[in-house]
Amino acid sequence: MGNDIEFNVFQKIWTISNDFGLNTDLLETNLINLGIVISLLIYFGKGVLSNLLINRKLAISNTIRDAEERYKEATYKLEQAKIRLEQAKMKARNIRTSGLSQMEKEKKDLIDGTDEDLRRLEDSKNATIRSEKQRAIEQVQQQVSRSASERTLETLKNCLDNELHLRMIDHNIGLLRAMESVTE
């Protein structure tokens, strides 16, 4: 029996030693092994991970700050552009209104100038017609006078003899002397 006890004790020791050790099979890893690995990673990688997170946080906050500044700048530029657009629209309206009023003024001036030119041309035409009419009347009068004088002379030549002619001349000379004495 002494050997039996030894064998039982030896067998129990052998089973305990079989259960103790590292399990290297990744598929059979238990929660304890995972916890140990994660704990080691957290303990040794905490500084690196926190530095990475802080750097990432700073980069994100800088990017957000830059985006906000660009947004504010873009908003300001947009407002300035809107103000310039309104000013340009106002100026365009003023130019258009001024152009229309200038156009109306020039149109009125042109119409008034044309009316004045037409009036002057009408007056000139009427004056030319009157002068041409007067000249034509004078020419007709001269022709009639010349014709009458020629007929009278012809009639006188035919009707008058020398004696009658001399008496007529004397009579006219006497009339001229009488007129001369009256005017003096």
TrEMBL record:
It is found in: Membrane; Plastid, Chloroplast thylakoid membrane. Keywords: ATP synthesis, CF(0), Chloroplast, Coiled coil, Hydrogen ion transport, Ion transport, Membrane, Plastid, Thylakoid, Transmembrane, Transmembrane helix, Transport. One of its GO terms (cellular component) is proton-transporting ATP synthase complex. It is a single-pass membrane protein. Its main location: membrane. The keyword Transmembrane helix applies. The chain crosses the membrane at residues 31-54. GO terms for molecular function: proton-transporting ATP synthase activity, rotational mechanism. InterPro entries: ATP_synth_b/b'su_bac/chlpt (IPR002146). Residues 64-98 form a coiled coil. In plastids the F-type ATPase is also known as CF(1)CF(0). Belongs to the ATPase B chain family. F-type ATPases have 2 components, F(1) - the catalytic core - and F(0) - the membrane proton channel. F(1) has five subunits: alpha(3), beta(3), gamma(1), delta(1), epsilon(1). F(0) has four main subunits: a(1), b(1), b'(1) and c(10-14). The alpha and beta chains form an alternating ring which encloses part of the gamma chain. F(1) is attached to F(0) by a central stalk formed by the gamma and epsilon chains, while a peripheral stalk is formed by the delta, b and b' chains. Component of the F(0) channel, it forms part of the peripheral stalk, linking F(1) to F(0). This is ATP synthase subunit b, chloroplastic.
